[in-house]
Specification:
The chain is an alpha+beta fold. The protein contains 6 helices and 10 strands, in the order E-E-E-E-H-H-E-E-E-E-H-E-H-E-H-H. The protein starts with 7 loop residues before the first strand and ends in a 16-residue tail after the last helix. Belongs to the UPF0301 (AlgH) family. It comes from Lysobacter antibioticus.
Amino acid sequence: MPTPLANQVLIALSALADTNFSRSVALICQHDDDGAMGIVVNRPSEYTLGEVFGQMGVDGGDESLRSQVVLAGGPVHPERGFVLHDGGTRWDSTLVIGNDLFLTTSRDILEAMAKGEGPDNAIVALGCAGWGSGQLEHEITENDWLTAPADAELLFELPLDVRWQAAAGRIGVDFAHLADYAGHA
């Protein structure tokens, strides 16, 4: 069952004081009365998928897959891996986010990806973002975040460095025309 802000992206505004989220785009994966959980989708980590495979003892994967940048998904549980993907729920631990969008935390999806049997589109992140009960709603009312619908192009195709502006553009916002953002696009 979709939750109120699940399958939406949060777009950080200049009012957001937390440096973990400056100019970030975070996909909300789960949102309910207890809080929210999401994955930052525009911040590279220092790791490649090949390095993650190596640390986990997962063999395989072509050079293109092994060189894929792993994202810094957020400051919560930075040691845990999260795979944001399309292609269903056939893995052990998968959360349905929206239409053909899923989050899997089990090792079996990485093994399938290494064998060429994974989802068509996937990004791997280390860590996630979390908000306590009412915290995200408060931050939105304080003008820390804009919200926009998520889409496959934004999540899987666009280069990381253009996702922040592209996400804002989905709702008609151009940061280059706002005083706080001029010269920082």
